[in-house]
């Protein structure tokens, strides 16, 4: 669940990615990107009234985020209150108390976050020290060393606090394949399928409204085609993306989405229809990009896994992996680390202590060499289920049990498939990377346990099992 309420301890008069409750009193607002779990309260009537009577309160974001936000009519009232800032261009902002006239100056710099179009990190520099808010981000190992504004000359700036996207700060996600690796697997799968006939189509079952543009542009470039989407509104001021998407369904690659209230009932059905314009039935495979699902697999898993007769999962992450987070923190060595997300199955105390320990050590553990990522064509257990033998698997080697962090004795687990009665997730968890809740203590039930469970269900008995 999310543990970030919108305020930083060092600069409590500004709010980031949260626009309700105590944040209504803030002197300035910052939006890191346009995913809904970071926009709570942004269209609230109280905040709207505050803006109408204020001369100084503004919302700061990137130019792309401004365009995405205003493409939704619900946020049109923000237009005169948004101040888009250039990337990597330090800007001084005055935070004014309109009642007392008290003023505080801050320098803010937007840094690329690598999460989705327009996503940024905010670096604040002021009287209370340098503070970095990452928002949601995905940086590869070593990327921090190449960000100019995190340095003063040749040395790393002193960072008082980092408010960290800790979505995957969990050893189960020690190494998540890079986007390039995931893309290569998807390209091979898509290419092998759509080359069979014009009636072989692919549906990218993308959960978030946007953020998958990296896939769209690369697929469009590779196969000289456009990706079918439901609306072009959010892309109209982004020509570098607009040329790769279309509302014409006569294409072989789709990323159209079901209406929200029909997603569960429609399953893997292509939202725009299952027949071609001439009435010929389409041969459809669906590919669902996700990460959390893969973290729950066995030690050996694949970048792409066939999960049904015509459905696949592709390991694709918008968030930094465990090892990438450790590299990031070890390089910057902040005084304080505040996690913005609590991974399912962990506590706030655990998530707070582990990154602090990493930053203090300033290095990765000696057993890091036990963690490896290997790519190859493989004859995995999943291959036997693959009816299209021409579509090879890509192998990931995740950490052996002995290679986990010292003190982390939880065994690797095999997750159950998504259930209809899964508990409601927090808003920060309901995103493209969360498909099922993680339960570190879960295990595969034995046949006798399943039989007993079915008997209880049939008789109407209570099947909630208390922990020992």
TrEMBL record:
It holds the Pfam family DRMBL. Residues 402-411, 458-468 have a biased composition (Basic and acidic residues). The keyword Nucleus applies. InterPro entries: DRMBL (IPR011084), RibonucZ/Hydroxyglut_hydro (IPR036866). It comes from the Eukaryota. GO terms for biological process: DNA recombination; double-strand break repair via nonhomologous end joining; interstrand cross-link repair; telomere maintenance. Its main location: nucleus. GO terms for cellular component: nucleus. Residues 240-343 form the DNA repair metallo-beta-lactamase domain. It is found in: Nucleus. Residues 400-468 are annotated as: Disordered. GO terms for molecular function: 5'-3' DNA exonuclease activity; damaged DNA binding; endonuclease activity. Keywords: DNA damage, DNA recombination, DNA repair, Endonuclease, Exonuclease, Hydrolase, Nuclease, Nucleus. Belongs to the DNA repair metallo-beta-lactamase (DRMBL) family. This is Protein artemis. It comes from Dicentrarchus labrax.
